[in-house]
Specification:
single chain; 172 residues; mainly beta; Immunoglobulin-like; six-stranded antiparallel β-sheet; globular; signal; ABC-type Fe3+-hydroxamate transport system substrate-binding protein
Length: 172
């Protein structure tokens, strides 16, 4: 009897998980960066509505940060979300952490309850850092019609004297 009940519970959870419909759509825009260098390889794939930004935000002796893309995800089960994807390279000899600070969309600040981004990068390594803005009941979800502005904040738990900030600005 316990085996049948366990199987039925597993089957019902599997069916519930399969019910959600998820679609992705890239948000394209122009990036205003303090660095004049632009990454090569921007491509437009019309089949997947995939438009990558590939804009270098900063490339100095400590880090290289590239804004790769901004993807809007529509999910009936979990709600809408947007992922801002960065490629981070750590050029230092100790681990660093990168976080999103002062995030605003369409000239309005985003409540920190609906966003998250914190990525550790080991010395000499690269990592993908994703800023996720998730729709939650009771919080205003932005439309992403005008712009996205934020600060990339780099620091180290190993060296408390190291920190740097770089502005990111995307116009849609």
């Amino acid at each position: 009897m316990k085996k049948i009940l366990s199987f039925m519970l597993f089957l019902s959870l599997f069916l519930l998980a399969a019910c959600g419909d998820k679609t992705e759509e890239n948000l394209s825009g122009d990036v205003d960066s303090t660095d004049t260098e632009t990454a090569e390889g921007t491509e437009d794939q019309t089949d997947n509505r995939e438009q990558e930004i590939n804009e270098v935000i900063v490339d100095n002796e400590n880090v290289k940060a590239t804004l790769v893309k901004i993807v809007k995800i529509q999910d009936e089960t979990w709600g809408n979300s947007v992922e801002v994807v960065f490629d981070i390279t750590n050029k230092r000899d100790h681990s660093i952490e990168v976080q999103a600070r002062s995030v605003s969309v369409d000239d309005r600040m985003i409540d920190e309850t609906i966003l998250s981004m914190s990525q550790e990068v080991a010395p000499g390594k690269s990592a993908t850092a994703k800023l996720t803005i998730q729709e939650f009941e009771g919080y205003e979800f932005p439309q992403f019609e005008k712009n996205l502005e934020m600060t990339l904040y780099f620091f180290s738990w190993d060296n408390v004297d190291y920190e740097e900030e770089h502005p990111v600005s995307v116009t849609f």
